[in-house]
Amino acid sequence: MFIHNTPAAYYGRAIKITSDILEKWHSEFNNTIEEFQKYLLHETVDNQLFACWSIRVKYRETFIKTIIKWLEKHQNVEINSRWYELIADLASRESCEQEWCHTIYILDNNQFIIHRQSTALLSHGLTGLSSWPAAISLGDYLMKRIHLLENKRIIELGAGSGLLGLTLLKYSDKILSYTFTDYSPMILNLLRQNALLNFSEYQIDEKMKIEELDWNQYSIENNHHNCFDCILAADVVYDPSVIENLVKTIRILLQKNQQCTAYIANAIRNESTYEQFRKALIQSCLDVRSVEMDTSQSIEIIQLALLPKDSI
Fold first, then answer.
1. Is there a domain that residue 190 lies in?
2. Last residue of some domain: 55, 73, 99?
3. Which pLDDT value is given to residue 126?
4. CB–CB of 41/7 below 8 Å?
5. What is the domain extent for residue 93?
6. Same domain flag for 53 and 124
7. CA distance 108 to 66
8. Which residues contact 29 (CB under 8 A, 6 or more apart)?
9. In terms of domains, do 174 and 195 share one?
10. Same domain, 93 and 116
11. Which Pfam families does the UniProt entry name for this protein (predicted)?
């Protein structure tokens, strides 16, 4: 699984911290604030894992300022001078904020994912240039049940920058093959970069494919993909105009292998759009089962399969 609640996990993924979070970490650390500061520095800004990759400058600055502000609330506490050194160094870089940055996702099997993404997020008009929360939820769900993917040929729809698939491949070396798909050359190029940051060219050639797949153009007639045992997708239901072709694509892939199963995770940002997606699945005669619901983030994971009578 992803490690979520440690200082290193927050810092690596550029998650905002608060005074309450710092207070909680300090209480769990069960030592002096002076020692706690050394621990925070060691786990985050001075961690050699993060030093190798460009965590976003603006995030690092906010992270350190939040810690300093929290420390200032405690009387008779000497603030470690390292925090001020870091702030001064970051201030000199602020005018040259990078277009691209890295986040680091730490797993509970001592592996980690280096994830390159755009600091501009959606400025290019392409959703796949950033990561989305449903990919993390689906990753956690599947890592807890990694046997579902072992010895399987997997295809991911709307893979974006590749976080989900790269994570699963780092978690298990028993996945037979993983085909990442998306529609944009820019997104696919970023996906290749992320694959090379995490795996050797030999490993990529052996188990991974990165392919263009446009749901709007997909049909049984031009389906040149091999059979797959599992279909994955995360955060793909955000635009009503894509739903019909997305469902059609899922159905065609399921028809290629009667034993194939799909797992789709989505953050429910718009109730009507999501309801339209669910109705389209049912109208396509797919077996739809909700397998997990994260109410705190409004993320649902559903399992799809063909109804037994349906075949080509």
1. yes
2. 99
3. 43
4. no
5. 7-99
6. no
7. 27
8. 35, 36, 39
9. yes
10. no
11. Methyltransf_16
Q: How far apart are CA 15 and CA 267, in angstroms?
A: 18
Residues 128, 79, single domain; the answer is no
Residues 184 and 248 reside in one and the same domain: yes
Per-residue model confidence (pLDDT) at position 238? 87
Q: How many domains does the chain have?
A: 2
Q: Is there a domain that residue 82 lies in? A: yes
Q: Does 210 lie in the same domain as 232?
A: yes
Q: 188-227, pLDDT tens digit by residue? A: 999 999 999 999 999 999 999 999 999 998 877 666 667 8
Phi, psi of 199 (to 5 degrees): -140, 155
**% of the chain with per-residue pLDDT over 70:** 91
Domain boundary residue among 99, 123, 142?
Answer: 99
Mind listing the pLDDT tens digit for each residue in 12-69?
999 999 999 999 999 999 899 999 999 999 999 999 999 888 888 889 999 999 999 9
Average pLDDT on 153-157 reads 97
3-class secondary-structure state, position 79: coil
Cα–Cα distance, 23 to 298 (Å, whole number)? 27
Q: What is the pLDDT of residue 78?
A: 95
Structure tokens at 309: 């009578």
Domain presence at residue 2:
no
Q: Element (H or E) spanning 230, and its range?
A: strand 230-234
The reported pLDDT for the residue numbered 220 is 72
**Owner of token pair 């201030």:** 91
Rounded Cα gap, residues 99 and 205, in angstroms: 29
- The pLDDT value recorded for residue 224 is 60
Token pair in block for residue 21 = 């979070």
Q: What is the pLDDT of residues 231-268, one digit of tens each?
A: 999 999 989 999 999 999 999 999 999 899 999 999 99
Q: Which residue has the tokens 């290019």?
A: 124
